[in-house]
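Thread: "does anyone have the structure for this chain?"

Original post by V.I.:
We have the sequence but no experimental structure in hand. Need at least a predicted one for the grant figures.
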Amino acid sequence: MTTAKITLSASSTKSLILLAPGSPGLRLTEVGVSMDGSAAAQGVQIDLYRVATLGSPAGSSATPAKLTDENAPSASASALTALTTEPTSVTILRSWMVAPFGGLFGMQEVLDREVGAASSGARIGLRYTTAASVTPGCVAYLSFTE
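Reply from O.Q.:
Generated one for you, tokens below.
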């Protein structure tokens, strides 16, 4: 699941991706974020989270693309990107600081220790937190297996 380019808002915490697993759930295999800031600035905090209380999140609907054989079944998971309304509460699973000037972060999950979501209510998200006047463009992805 990959986002289009999103211009980050200054002094904000917003979700880039929110995955809703279908049946039989999902396990993340890789996380990535890159930014195109034009000058050195404070780092952007990136959080991988699990939704604790869903509420009514809203954003752009997105269909996860296949990374393997085009003949493989379509993903049962669905996603929102560039959220305009956030989940009510989340549990942070991992956090990273990424430099907005040429910032690049990518991590493959360790086999059998992947972050997962077993049911459609246990959504997984990726969000950013920026400082004042930090507004780089950003693209992000979450790769997963079902």
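V.I.: this helps a lot. The mean pLDDT is 89.
O.Q.: and The two ends are 13 Å apart (CA to CA).
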